[in-house]
Write a structure and sequence with these properties.
Elements lengths: L7 E10 L2 E10 L2 E7 L2 E8 L4 H11 L9 E7 L9 E6 L27 H4 L15 H12 L3 H6 L3 E6 L5 E7 L2 H14 L9 E4 L5 H9 L4 E4 L5 H10 L2 E7 L2 E6 L24
Parallel strand pairs: 3-6, 9-10, 10-11
Antiparallel strand pairs: 1-2, 3-4, 5-6, 7-8, 7-9, 11-12
Length: about 290
């Protein structure tokens, strides 16, 4: 995977190692604000790692419910300021989309550490019109165990900086279709969804999404919006993520490492015929303790 331009910054650091001190060059994951506008109307500012910005904007519009298909995007372009500053602005022109800036109840500011910061209420977090993913899709557990190693090989910026999240989309037979990195885990997913949207591949009803970080609520919601039936992560999900996955029938897998993983929802898609009877009925929600 080629490293996107402007995704890495070089800086000088002072390193202490077992009593020895030295100055050396170090690589940092780039973080810059990206403003997304619909026409001349500002929609959101997200802190992201530059690269694949048009995919990020397209994926954001889809996963946040502002569009349903690529046909609603009349134009999508990255604007270069006349003052010579970096191109941190994407302008989208929509058609046949019900967008009314005056009625938006959410402030779409998304910091790199949180995909839902600034939204007015818990009700505002929930995207309307979500549909359950393809119920009949099945994969072999052995196939799932091979995916993290494939994703790790597609993280050039992480290997240099240690500071990025990644998302990868796989076909039903485990073939890597696309991988994206970003300082925000939700941005990495939006870049994947935006790529699929612009390639005419939605809904992703027979695909697997793997993310390098935890499986949070926002990641689950974006996956369902794209029609993805199986979401796996190398870390843990959150309680709200599990609740939404169970409600809408998404297979949610955590701790996918080596030859072990934990299924929090939708076990029948990857463990058909091998789920213990006591675990066959998933609870509707999680329990507070």
């Amino acid at each position: 995977m080629r490293t996107p331009a402007r995704s890495i910054r070089i800086t000088q650091v002072t390193e202490w190692d077992s009593g020895a001190v030295r100055t050396r060059a170090d690589s940092l994951a780039a973080e810059e604000p990206l403003e997304i506008r619909i026409g001349e109307t500002p929609l959101t500012v997200t802190m992201r790692t530059p690269g694949h910005d048009l995919e990020l904007a397209a994926g954001f519009l889809l996963t946040e419910g502002l569009i349903d298909s690529a046909s609603q995007i009349a134009s999508l372009q990255q604007l270069v300021p006349a003052n010579g500053l970096q191109a941190n602005l994407v302008e989208v022109v929509l058609k046949d989309a019900l967008f009314d800036a005056a009625q938006l109840k959410r402030n779409f500011f998304a910091a790199s550490s949180c995909g839902i910061c600034g939204k007015a209420s818990i009700d505002a977090i929930r995207r309307r019109g979500l549909r359950s993913p393809e119920a009949d899709f099945r994969v072999d557990p052995e196939l799932l165990c091979r995916l993290p190693e494939i994703l790790a090989a597609e993280q050039p910026v992480f290997r240099r900086t240690g500071g990025l999240h990644a998302a990868a989309l796989f076909s039903a037979d485990g073939r890597l279709l696309a991988a994206r990195e970003d300082i925000g885990r939700h941005n990495a997913v939006d870049k994947i969804v935006g790529w699929a949207l612009l390639e005419g591949l939605l809904p992703l009803s027979r695909h697997i999404l793997l993310v390098s970080g935890r499986g949070g609520f926002e990641i689950v919601q974006k996956s369902i919006a794209a029609g993805i039936p199986i979401l796996a992560s190398v870390s843990a999900p959150s309680s709200l993520a599990v609740q939404l996955a169970r409600e809408l029938g998404l297979t949610l897998i955590g701790f996918l490492r080596g030859r072990r993983f934990v299924v929090y929802a939708g076990a029948s898609r990857c463990l058909a015929g091998s789920v213990p009877a006591s675990a066959s009925a998933e609870p509707d929600s999680t329990t507070n303790i």
